[in-house]
Amino acid sequence: VIEPSGIDHVGIAVTDLEASVERYRGLLGREPVHRERVESQGVEEALFAVGGSYVQLLGALGPDTPVGRFLASRGPGMHHLAYRVDDLVVALERLRDDGVRLIDAEPRPGSRGTLIAFVHPASTGGVLIELVQEATSATRR
Ligand code: CO
Known about the structure:
Helix content: 10-25%
Radius of gyration: 15 Å
Order of helices and strands: EHEEEHEHEEE
Bound molecules: cobalt (II) ion
Largest sheet: 8 strands, mixed
Distance between the termini: 22 Å
Number of strands: 8
Strand order of the largest sheet: 2-3-4-1-5-8-7-6
């Protein structure tokens, strides 16, 4: 079980990040609250706050990146759903005990100082799921 405390964000793969930021600025009627280039994931992101959650626009840093390959095979659109958890290590242990297939066995750094891990879509009915532990709730281990 994940036992999420909320939806952290919905990730949307885009082919042109600047054009998509313009589109979402108009669609949502607000400015992005955060921009970040995450080299380790091969993405550049823009976050729009919606309530306590975000819409995350994801541009690929190259064709041979996870989002680049997604865009090549499926085109732009919804990429993943991210749940917020209080303790990512505990959540991963519980999922492993449940026999859920994980992409990331251990937490890794995400944007905004978060810790993240991905769950394989084969275990979730075809949805790529990301778990996010906010920097503010980081537990010292
Ligand atoms: Co994400």
